[in-house]
Amino acid sequence: MPLSQIQETVDAVATQQVSNQFGTQRYAFLLSPAHMEARVIHSISSRLLHQRGWPWVFAKRCVINGSVDVYNQCTDGSCVASNNFWRSLSNLTINVTNPTFGCYSGEFWAVSQASPIRRVLVNGAATLMDYCTGPSFASGGFIADSQFEGGSVVNGSQQQWLVRNSSLDGWSNGVWNQVFSGVVGAPAQCFPVQASCGGPYTTLATSPVTREAHTFM
User: Fold this and answer.
1) Is residue 181 a contact partner of residue 206, using CB atoms and an 8 Å limit?
2) Residue 92 and residue 69: Cα distance in Å, rounded?
3) Residue 199: how many CA atoms within 13 Å on its side-chain side?
4) Phi/psi at 95 (5° precision)
5) Displacement of CA 154 from its chain's centroid (Å)
6) The whole model's pTM is what?
7) Can you name the residues that pair with 96 across neighbouring β-strands?
8) Nearest-angstrom CA–CA distance, 174 and 105
9) Do the Cβ atoms of 110 and 70 come closer than 8 Å?
10) Kind and range of the H or E element at 203?
């Protein structure tokens, strides 16, 4: 399937779904194992996924060279991510290559609630807020069994976030509570927030018992 046709299909869904979080439509994009040069996939109220599997095996089989992005939604001059619900990513690698995107260069995942990232490898800059338009509020998310390489994850205005059984190159700031469980590269415990250590971070060395979410096709 030509890249232009893939992008056209994704863009059509995004145009319909960006502000349709309470609509009845639901979409899933299933990508076969391959490398593809992808432009920005913007604010899709759906699931971009591949097939069930575990990190470093399935993630490396489906590779996007580009980015899979969710930006702020802007209404009456106020641009926030606090209504970006029900999006998710799983089972793929993202090699971030979008240097012509200006402020939006990097992997932008500005979401709030029910928007997990599972079994994803991100090579390059990543942010969980859209700092390119203000006030850029965002309200929570979840990362599991994933790896971020090539720079600190910008948490920014995210009020709360949970990262489990993953690997980070760094993590910046937070608003209310950021929880890390069994995460390599997690910030040190710092709760409540203190000038001496940043925060607010709750950090657990391991995740003794977990139940994974499986994708069945």
Assistant:
1) yes
2) 14
3) 16
4) -90, 105
5) 11
6) 0.84
7) 66
8) 21
9) yes
10) strand 201-204
